[in-house]
Amino acid sequence: MQAKITKTLVDKTEASTREVWVWDTEIRGFGLRVRPTGRKSYVVEYRPGAGGRNAPKRRYTIGTHGSPWTPTAARKRAIEVLAEVVKGNDPSADRQSSRNDDAETVAHFIGHFIERYAKHHQKSWRETERTLQKDVAPRIGKKRLLDVTKRDVAVLIDAMTERAPVGAQRTFSHTRRFFNWCVEQGFLQSNPCAGMKPPAGTSVRERVLSDSEVAAIWSATGSLPLLWECAFRVLLLTAQRKNEVLSMEWSEIDRNMRLWKIPGEKTKNGRAHEVPLSELLFEVLGKIPRIGDSRYVFTTNGKTPLASQSKIKRRLDALSSSIHSQHNDHEENNQPIPHWTIHDLRRTATTGMARLGIAPHVADALLNHKSGSLSGVAAVYNRYGYLDERRRALKMWEEHVISL
């Protein structure tokens, strides 16, 4: 069928038991294809090169009818494609070549690694995905996997080390595991990270925030979006891991027992954990509106937990440093707060409890450490959960934070 392809014609052309073709009467080769399923798409047929009728026809699919492919937009694209043919190019072959090239890039294999490995073997796979997509893909994502060298990785990590030493070590760890997977799957012969050492000076985590820093950070959270304000306060008051807090679900909160029950599949050691909830923690959680029937407590879309913590962390750093300087202008530490990580809140809370006289085995139980301060026969036979002691410990820590 031949006719000028317009919106009216496209809308009126109905599907049949066989494909329906409409060829435009104004632009030779521009056509509309209607599949038996009802799907409508725009195409261009042409003969590449100077072969004339002796050259085999090629078909270039412009796109499916609907935004952005209206008859007008598709017609314009058809003219562009045919102009390339006149120049001696083969748009269909070029597109296929581009697809083949994309299928060999680092970015392509990162996608496979996340879907086929990380999601099934890593509880913190979202962190792995964020690191690889944000820090690795923009720098070496377009390179062919087989062309990546040790020098490429070194330049990537060195650049990160200058601005974020701790983040650089995390990125190196995720990158090395990604390339190991590529070797295991037969995509690479060797790991370009082999023989490389992690960024120096970031392996030991021992940052503990001072009382004045804790006070400034707590105050600064009040200027963050509500969900992040509550998330950071829960992190500081409970001493639990970031991924456990951000993935908290409403069903995990037992209001009668005043407990937050974290299932084993979410914890680092695979063991279910119970965190006592104080009045203040209930007050913090009570400020959070529930989105429809979403299971997540900290969510903006009702489907996934909060993300982009790096951006909000930078904002918190600026706010807390400003507050810290203002309130300590007569002290030696009236400087911006030195670099700290979200995990440091957990260490700070634990250290603070020790200063308050909380026994180490109670703190270990609160942190859900697998071995902790108990070892040998005691670790095997002591199955007491210290729930009451943990509740008192968190209460003492909470009162200390508020007193600051």
Automatic annotation (TrEMBL):
UniProt entry keywords in alphabetical sequence: DNA integration, DNA recombination, DNA-binding
Core-binding (CB) domain segment(s): 104-183
Residue ranges of domain Tyr recombinase in the record: 204-395
Ranges annotated as spanning the membrane: none
Record Gene3D superfamilies: 1.10.150.130, Integrase, DNA-binding domain (3.30.160.390), Intergrase catalytic core (1.10.443.10)
PROSITE patterns: CB, TYR_RECOMBINASE
InterPro entries on file: CB, DNA_brk_join_enz, Integrase-like_cat_sf, Integrase_catalytic, Integrase_DNA-bd_sf, Integrase_DNA_bind_dom, Integrase_recombinase_N, Phage_int_M
Family according to the record: Belongs to the 'phage' integrase family.
Stored PANTHER family: PROPHAGE INTEGRASE, PROPHAGE INTEGRASE INTS-RELATED
Name this polypeptide is given: Tyrosine-type recombinase/integrase
